[in-house]
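Anyone opening a protein record will find just a pair of labelled lines. A complete record is shown below as an example.
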Amino acid sequence: MTSSKTILDALIVAERKFVENDLNTLVEKYLIPLSDEDSSPLAAATSTLENHHHAEENYLHNVSSSLNIIKNLHKFTLSRLEKSDLDPNTLGALFSTVTSQLLAPYKQYYTSVPKIMNYLQKEKENNESYRNWLNQNDEATLNRLLVEAPQEHLKFYAQQLNEYLKTTTISQEEKSHVESSLDYLKKTMEAIVKAQHEKHHTPIRRLSEKQ
């Protein structure tokens, strides 16, 4: 049986990797350069894909905004997990607080992601500057960090919390916290799946067409 201390250690390692590697790389290497209206390769195209634009919104900025909230919540979680006085048998109380706050920003994030993927695919087909940029910046990593990495991390949360439920030292109150956390994680994953499969008809105004 996995001990609560082992689960705590695994969560610290995974949370640190997610914050310091995945989220930082996604924001610093990809989203910030792509959303810069002056230097972005997305601003270089001259061809027009849509004659009518119903959205002035830049979804790259939108998703960056959601990610900032997500990142701050994960940084808070990491700081709490790393506290030397944290009792490993109080993980449920921490995660019931965190997972309840993650639902809304993750839902907002994954509502924008399919629109961004559609947008970037069109740019890849029509924008040589963006194609050149992708060749230098690893498109597969962008796609993994944008779509898969956050979901994988949430699934890891659920896996570890389910293991935690099996430990013999857990109190009834703590068990209630863990079950609440797992419920929020389930709702978050369901919201992500729904957001990814919804039809997104609103055309995205390209950076090259900003006035």
